[in-house]
């Protein structure tokens, strides 16, 4: 992505936040009206990104898996990626809890007493067996239409693996078609990203105008703890992984992550960032298209270490807020529940809050606490989604290193 476009995207976010903040502070009817008027543009931008996600994910995974040749390589790539996501999620939960407990002295009792607790009905989340069964789509077209990324990935991986065993002529015909579809969708993604500065501005302005400083004034300690924990997590986990495991320049890697991170922060949706991650992996990080086409969509569905950090902090904060002691046994059960649930976090704004319900139930924290976190979730949501994207790109670089680098694989486009 051109540097000038990266700068324009960042400026779009900053200007949108400043405009929204000015509208919230001054309550000027012109500023408030303008912030509300541009919101449909932001919605349209997110819809454009989501429009290409499902077909692009299906095309690039098909090309990557069917081109592997050796199915043992597919199992190795998937095992490394999923192991990375699981381990970093455990570290994330524990780090989030630790940082929140360390910063609890910053939280005042008066702020806690001022919170109006509202009952929030938590969604019913599947158990481990139901979750595994849900990965097998009875109708892959319905899964695609509903935006169910993980069942779709399972179907495409199996279909591509079968295609890879066909006679060469038939396999090449299918792979050639998938490559052409992927190339066209990537071109369409390039066009969409050129309007990203406007779209991100239109997303940031109305949200900030409505919220203002209220979320920071009410629960400043929680928001700061989440942001600090996420920063520590990236510096202590992802940076060493990039430098010592993937053996890449940290500066170049972080530079390549900027555009996907900004889009992730604006859209608060990892799947919506898949096109930008694929483009960054190809243009900036120089990752094998076979690896990126498999690991990035997988990470968009499973890479939720940033959400795990947030949920760990949320668990510790709500336990303090409601006066619930966290015993060692309770912490163990809560960590396990949080890690499992982090793989099922819906890719929607606030998804990490609602899916925290099983962990709260494990330690006896009222589900009413979910309403507290929802009220201050926007800034943490932006930060944790950007962290999730960084983790997915870290896993992609790591797998690429273990697979021998981009020079050993064919390119999609």
In short:
With 413 residues, the protein is mainly α.
Question: Which features would summarize this protein structure in a list?
Answer:
413 residues; mainly alpha; Proton glutamate symport protein; 21 helices; 0% strand; globular
Rough outline: globular
Instruction: Indicate the percent of residues in helices.
Output: over 70%
* End-to-end Cα distance: 16 Å
Segments where pLDDT lies below 50 for 5+ residues? Answer: 110-125, 406-413
CATH superfamily: Sodium:dicarboxylate symporter
Q: Return Rg in Å.
A: 21 Å
Compute the number of helices. Answer: 21
CATH architecture descriptor name: Orthogonal Bundle
In terms of structural class, how would the helical and strand content be classed? mainly alpha
Number of strands: 0
CATH class (first level) name: Mainly Alpha
CATH topology: Proton glutamate symport protein
Helix and strand string, N-terminal first?
Answer: HHHHHHHHHHHHHHHHHHHHH
> Largest sheet, if any?
none
